[in-house]
Amino acid sequence: MFMVLALVSALVFLQSQAGNYCPLENINSIPGCFDALKLATGKDISKLTRACCRAVFSVSSDTCYLLLFPGKAYPIKIFRDICLNQTNVIFMVPIVSALVFLQSEAGNYCPTENINSIPGCFDALKLASGKDYRRLTRDCCRAVFSVIPDTCFLLLFPGKAYPIKMFRNIRLNVNYVSAASPF
């Protein structure tokens, strides 16, 4: 993924020379959206809102570039993909949380040996359940992906278990931005 971002960065300069910039009216009309997009280029997608993503999708061209920093433009498609992935996580968390209690009653808990063997991984997953993905590491993600079966529930807090698939999806979505790979 790092190579993809490097290629995109290399193309950014060439494409931005052509002046194919996206109009910013809708993006600038959403408070904090422009800054959230800047943060998203540096792996922090926590500030993206539904309204900001709607503004990104309202840009009519699929081939234009967002000029977020002086001399640095990014393809709009990157931000559309980030928004698609981020909104899936944002909308899934409340639904998953509502089901947590019912599913945890079944006792289908994930084995945690691999997760516990990675220092800080369990705490990083607790934070990720609250949308803070900054502490997820490659080794932690490998541990999450090694959990079998993928239908089990990870008991993070007393009485609160989350589907392991939720953490796999979070990691895949974060990978797109961070260029880190779970493998």
From TrEMBL:
Keywords: Signal
Signal peptide start-end: 1-18
Full protein name: Prolamin-like domain-containing protein
Species of origin: Brassica napus (Rape)
